[in-house]
Amino acid sequence: MAFYIAVLGWVTVHGFNYYRLPLQERAYHPLNRELRPSGPIGLGLAFLGVASFFCIYLYAIRKRWKPLGKIGKTRNWLDIHVVLGVAAPALITFHAAFRTNNLAGIAYWIMMAVMASGLIGRYLYAQIPRRINAAELSLQEMQAMTDELTEQLQTQSLVSAEELKPLLAVPSKERVEAMSVLSALLVMCACDLKRPFLVARIRRRAGAARVATLLGLRPSPERGLEKIIGLARQRSWIATKISFLSKTHQVFHLWHVVHRPFSYSFAILVLVHVGNALLMGYY
Question: What predicted TM-score, i.e. pTM, was given to this entire model?
């Protein structure tokens, strides 16, 4: 990750004045020779971007090739898969000098669709229990958290049960089942996105220093308050995961239908683009 950030950061700073010019004026810029798609830096970004993209398929190969499956944890492989899936499009964008037309343009927008669907897939992956009995264990864990949270609330005066209600409020399974797949996905995302802001409001109402905690977005030094917030936030997350579990499975199945064809079609278009560039002498 640091390597890609360094490369992209350097290219951004080095070529800022070049990339912000209209296309018709770039040919007269001193950096055009090296930053154009066929220039030394442009080609370097292309090679690194294409190599990174094809390394993405190692995650899928690992699932089917037992020797590779014994190396590392699936979650770490998935994280690398996501990092490469974000870095490769960024590198290709700079390689193309932000020009998206012709065959390369089609490949580019398919690549962006692959990246977007990959980020959605990573989010969905985190919502699905990895074990058969994980849902039952989550229910038990949630009940244990509820009991501990009730006990903690009774022994302090920093925050009341009423103030925790918005954070603990999660759509019921029955309500979720009545939603369409798209609506369920949007509501689930909304629940996860608003959780940090609900936590921040609890901290502010409990008297946490606004400046030191960035309006409640960062933890306060009050351990008792943070313990209660931690329990409530974890309970909210588990309850959301359980309520949306059935819909998440449906969305994840649909996601596979979209993500794989896009990724394979992009790989084919990349090979066609590279072959065409070599044949035409654009290097």
Answer: 0.64
